[in-house]
Structures are given as structure tokens and as C-alpha cells.
Write a structure and sequence with these properties.
By secondary structure, this protein is α/β, with parallel strands linked by helices. The protein contains eight helices and 13 strands. The strands form three sheets. Strands 9-8-7-10-11-13-12 form a seven-stranded mixed β-sheet, with helices on both faces. Strands 1-2-3-4 form a four-stranded mixed β-sheet, with helices on one face.
Length: about 260
């Protein structure tokens, strides 16, 4: 049975929701998970990830009754509510890889910033000039600000903004922050691409790290749709790299598409 460990909390992931597992088998797995270093709580994921905020429901299985994770990765520490804030420990290496592609002179925008994981990992590992993170969820943004304090990051270097990127990224935003050298888009699996917003704050030479979801044999369709939308926006790009960055189902992956803005 699959599971994720978020520091002090382990979350068992059922093969299918609605199908009851034998209580004895579940307790046995929980006992094994509680033997792992630092794990004090075992929960079972009781729902699919839902809505734009990507929340889940959980059931307590064993250990301390608690929903606040205390998690470490890439020389950073994070706290968050596991039901209210989407978080994937499986993207730890991906976040480190992105941080390694950013220079100290860069100004970085992170859309869908969650509890601040991408902005904080990027800052702690690359120390860019400025990072702006936008997150729609109020609770996640509250944890984002708390995590900035936990990691002793000054407000003038990383700024957390609560709100919908479609409403926040407008002329007023551009006047205040200007254009960005790097735009990171770890977007949810939604129909909207949000490329219009990403390109709005991009200049010639901006690098966009766009994440899209596709069946392995339909990646070309994903690229075609991106190019079609960019053409409608009267912009010009070059797709430099397409990399599978995490599986989400059999023969279906999250793809990182590295885009260089030409116009």
C-alpha cells in the first residue's frame, strides 16, 4: 500500500476510495509506519484531492491525533495542515533541481505557491534577488508566511501574496513588480493553463517552468495546445526541454516544460 511521509505524519493512500480495507491490515501497516524515524501520527487519506485548493479528507488510524505536519527537505523546514494544504514530498528532488537552475541575480515569480515550498527551497538554495509567491488558499498562505519565519527569510527577499493569480496578475501588479527573469508554474491539474498570466509578467529572455499533465502518448497534444495559446496571445516562445517530473497514474505524468520567451 502506498503512503507519504510528511515529517511527523504518515498518510496511507488507499488503492481506491469507497473500498473498505481490513482493519487489521491497516493497523499493521500503521504500526510499521510508526517505527519510522520521526513519525508520530498515521492517517488514512479518505478522499481524492478536491477542488482548486487541492484539499483532502483524512481518518486517524494510529498514534497522536494531529493534522499539523512538521516536515524538512532541501535544508528547509515547513509546517502546514495536511487536510487544508496540498503538499507532495515526492517533488522534493524536482524543487531542488529548479532551485539549481536559478541565479542570484534573478527575480522569480512562483504561481500556485502553496505553503511556500518552491519559493523557500529556491531562496535557501540559490539566494535570488527577489521571489514573489502567489497562493489562492488563505490557510496555505498563512502557513507560507509562517514558514518564511521558520526559515528566517526576510520579507524583502521573499514575499507571499494571497489571491487568485488571474486577479492578482494585472497592470497594477506589473507596475509594482515589473517583469520577471524566472516564472515557476507548478499548476494544479486544471483545464486552464494560466499561460496568459505567466507571459504577462515575462519579458524577452524570461524562462518559464510550466507543469502540465498528460498521458505519455499524448504529450505532443499538450505541446500543440501551448503553442496554439501562445500564438493567440501574440507572443513567441521556444520550448527547450520536456521532462517527466512525477507519475500521477499508470502511463500518465506531470511534465515539466521549460520555455524560453522570445517575444
Amino acid at each position: 500500500m502506498a503512503y507519504d511521509i510528511l515529517g511527523n505524519i504518515a498518510i496511507i493512500k488507499p488503492e481506491s476510495f469507497g473500498k473498505k480495507r481490513k482493519k487489521k491490515k491497516k493497523i499493521n501497516q500503521a504500526n510499521e509506519l510508526l517505527k519510522k524515524p520521526g513519525v508520530r501520527t498515521v492517517l488514512e487519506q479518505a478522499s481524492n484531492v478536491k477542488g482548486r485548493l487541492r484539499t483532502i479528507k483524512t481518518k486517524h488510524v494510529k498514534g497522536v491525533k494531529n493534522l499539523i505536519a512538521e516536515y524538512k527537505e532541501n535544508n528547509c523546514v515547513f509546517k502546514f495542515n495536511v487536510e487544508n494544504c496540498y503538499f507532495s514530498p515526492r517533488l522534493s528532488n524536482e524543487r531542488k533541481l529548479i532551485a539549481g537552475k536559478i541565479k542570484s541575480s534573478d527575480k522569480v515569480l512562483v504561481m500556485f505557491a502553496g505553503v511556500g515550498v518552491y519559493p523557500i527551497v529556491i531562496y535557501k538554495n540559490s539566494r535570488p534577488e527577489k521571489i514573489i509567491g502567489i497562493e489562492i488558499g488563505r490557510d496555505c498562505c498563512r502557513w507560507f508566511k509562517e514558514n518564511l519565519k521558520l526559515n528566517k527569510i526576510p520579507d524583502n527577499r521573499v514575499e507571499a501574496i494571497q489571491g487568485d493569480v488571474k486577479k492578482k496578475i494585472k497592470k497594477e501588479f506589473s507596475k509594482k513588480y515589473g517583469k520577471f527573469d524566472i516564472v515557476v508554474m507548478p499548476r494544479p491539474n486544471l483545464k486552464e493553463t494560466f499561460l496568459e498570466q505567466g507571459l504577462f509578467v515575462s519579458k524577452k529572455g524570461t524562462k518559464i517552468f510550466y507543469y502540465g499533465f498528460s498521458k505519455d502518448d499524448e504529450v505532443n497534444n499538450l505541446i500543440k495546445e501551448i503553442n496554439k495559446e501562445v500564438k493567440k496571445l501574440k507572443r513567441k516562445i521556444k520550448i527547450e526541454k520536456i521532462v517527466a517530473a512525477g507519475d500521477i497514474a499508470p502511463f500518465k505524468h506531470r511534465y515539466r516544460i521549460e520555455i524560453n520567451v522570445l517575444k
